[in-house]
# Entry
Amino acid sequence: MRSRWGGFWERKMAAPGLWPGMGRLLEMPAALRRVSRPYSTFQAFAEVLRLPKQQLTKLVFPLQDLERQLVPESKSELHLKIFDPSLEEIARAESIFTATARNRIEYLSSAERLDHAPDLPRPEVCFIGRSNVGKSSLIKALFSLAPEVEVRVSKKPGHTKKMNFFKVGKYLTLVDMPGYGYRAPEDFVDMVETYLKERRNLMRTFLLVDSVVGIQKTDNIAIEMCEEFALPYVMVLTKIDKSSKGHLLKQVLQIQKFVDTNTQGCFPQLFPVSAVTYSGIHLLRCFIANITGNLKTDGIQFS
Ligand code: GDP
# Structure
């Protein structure tokens, strides 16, 4: 079915003191062991917690790490305290993304059109981005605590691109949308635009931007589309391990300025990530858990 909106893409293409809570977290193993048996995420996260403070910040809170490079009067330019969970809260989110006998994390099905999509009751999040932005790598990194999950990649030209649905226990569904290129596939309009506009349980769209090159023309179109459809969305900056700190900071500040001045539906805080170093991955898992209503963090609950 052709989108009622006439196809957005078609039109556009034509045109702490020190770490509060950490002590308590390290004292929790007995209670936590009950939550996750086969893989102990908490053990894994406890390893993260043993890192020297600077390394831990870089891995878990990459924006904070970047902020340290800024002169004091520029620090407020990065809105890094809007979603600012404690390390305990981040550890709790890890359990949601950890495969266990009781918490099944698995690929469910693929669909070419919304009316072929599985009818799932759980809150849903989706990931969109240009081809090659690092979407598959990011989704693999998010599922690293469920190593059995196969993130399907269909990149061969001519192959039909599909939406891939993944179940994350009883908590949420994660949807991997086909990547858009300079020339979005024709069916993209029917598939992606219809999904974004009509999927009732879609809680948040994660729009990926390559931090090395910044916002490109097709990213701009995707941003305009999210704005026009009044979707709540979040910008995730991929491949942050590839640039020098200076270049990354410049890009992040530029993108932040763009978000502040040109967007309404975009979450004001950026999420920089690396699928290679895992920087930002724990925080992103925690954010997903929070916005799907599965993890209350102190203070504000985002919905
Ligand atoms: P997709 O087309 O958006 O799914 O992109 P892929 O996940 O396949 O990644 C495209 C290319 O970028 C591949 O060569 C990846 O190895 C590389 N890549 C993806 N994420 C990262 C990252 O975080 N860091 C680095 N250095 N390379 C990455």
The radius of gyration is 19 Å. Residues 1-6, 16-39 have pLDDT under 50 and may be disordered. The pocket of guanosine-5'-diphosphate is lined by residues 129, 131-137, 179, 238-239, 241-242, 274-276 (CB under 6 Å).
